[in-house]
Amino acid sequence: MKSNKEKAIFRSPDYIFSTHLNKRIEQRSIKMEWIIDTIEKPDITEKIADDEVHFFKKIIAFNKQFLKVVYNPITGIIVTAHFDRKITKKYIQ
């Protein structure tokens, strides 16, 4: 993970959104509340490394697709988010 190159642009009381994430939110039609909800109440959590955790949550309002949020717990930066077709296909019911 490129934690030393992550740049923050948006800050909420509890989370920092990376510059990359802010660009992708609009491009991918992702709502900020979905991102926060995915981190706070994930359906699936995968710890990849000390500086990288993936959170997944089924977003009912987005055709039941799974949102993947990549978070760096060391820096507190949410790196990116996207709808993950692979997880959606695996778990959708």
Give a verbal description of the structure.
The chain has 3 helices and 6 strands. It has one domain (8-91). The chain has 93 residues and is α+β, with helices and mostly antiparallel strands. A 6-stranded mixed sheet has the order 1-2-6-5-4-3, with helices on both faces. It is 27% helix and 39% strand.
Give me the strand/helix succession. EEHHEEEEH
The percent of residues in helical segments reads 25-40%
Q: What is the count of β-strands?
A: 6
Which segments are poorly predicted (pLDDT under 50) over 5 or more consecutive residues? none
The proportion of residues in beta strands is 35-45%
Structural class: alpha+beta
Strand order, biggest sheet?
Answer: 1-2-6-5-4-3
> Mean pLDDT score, rounded?
85
Radius of gyration: 13 Å
Annotation keywords:
93 residues; alpha+beta; 6-stranded mixed sheet; 3 helices; 6 strands
